[in-house]
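Annual report, structural modelling task.

Input specification for the pyridoxal-5'-phosphate complex:
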Amino acid sequence: MKVPFNDLRALHVPLMDEFKSEIEEILNNCSFISGPKVASFEENFAAAHEAGHCVCVNSGTAALHIALEALGIKAGDEVIVPSNTFIATAEAVSLTGATPVFCDCDADHANITAKAAEERITPKTKAIIAVHLFGQPAPLDELVALAEKKGLMLIEDCAQAHLATYKGKPVGTFGECGCFSFYPGKNLGACGEGGAVITNKTELADKMKAYRDHGSSQKYIHTFPAHNYRMDGFQGAILGIKLRHLADWTDKRRAIAACYDEKLSKISGVELISTLDDVKHVYHLYVIKVQDRDAFMKHLNDNDVQCGIHYPIPCHKQEAYAGEQPQLPNAEKLADEIVSLPIYPDMSLEQAEHVCKIVQEFF
Ligand SMILES: *Cc1c(COP(=O)(O)O)cnc(C)c1O
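The model returned the following structure:
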């Protein structure tokens, strides 16, 4: 049995007719940039996360960038970022001219904690970015409390956590705003690049809209130099269609994860990433920890089970951020032990059980 890491084609086949008809509609009315499909997706995506506003852009990186800019982050400022994240979280900080200051993560649940963030606060710190890594919300209560106590802004990187909840409330509006990616492989993916920021703050939303569109909120009136980060009409249409299935796809991911949890917890040699109480984890990735990783991954690949590492090098060890960096032992240890197993909505429970059998064989 072959188990791919993801299967986007299987996800899209039942939606192909709808995709084609909406794409044809756009080809006919020529609403290629922004337009009604993007506007209606923005409304529905905000509603799905109980947010007042959604500002769509052309990548998750752009979403983080305009959020930071609109919040006034600039050269000379520091923003605390967990080191075990995709590089874009840190890069968005660098794009503003500010410095990403890397903090460690929890050894068990792998997310940023208030304690790890607090250790890295200096007089220059302006904000903290909480990444909901793998689809599991970070401990938001303590992060919100820390931000309040220290007078810092909290930004959520929700690129892996569409529809995840913390104490019953969707991620994205616990701090100033929440930034999402619609990279094709994300839980909600475009057929191209895409991203969005959600917020309950009207003034912030208006500012971000200007940042995505040449510093303009009125045609040919430009109040500051900014970007062209607009979403294209095709992506708005595709995302609008796919959003209607996201809750169902999320349930399917969670069923696969429950099967993995049950079977893999019994295998000595496999350590699971722990899950916080009161969170709804949406399993963008299902990650385990093993000791002899190279041999383990070779065994999986030899048995047609695709796997990956997210991410093999923590940001503070990347050449892009070479220089004086702290030691972050939990992030460094995780990077050496983690393996991401296949998980996607169309994966069958038989496939999940087969993966567990192949894992068991190794040990
Ligand atoms: C994917 C991702 C991003 C960047 O999104 P792009 O759409 O690829 O620019 C940012 N942060 C995290 C945690 C991600 O997983």
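The chain has 13 helices and 15 strands.
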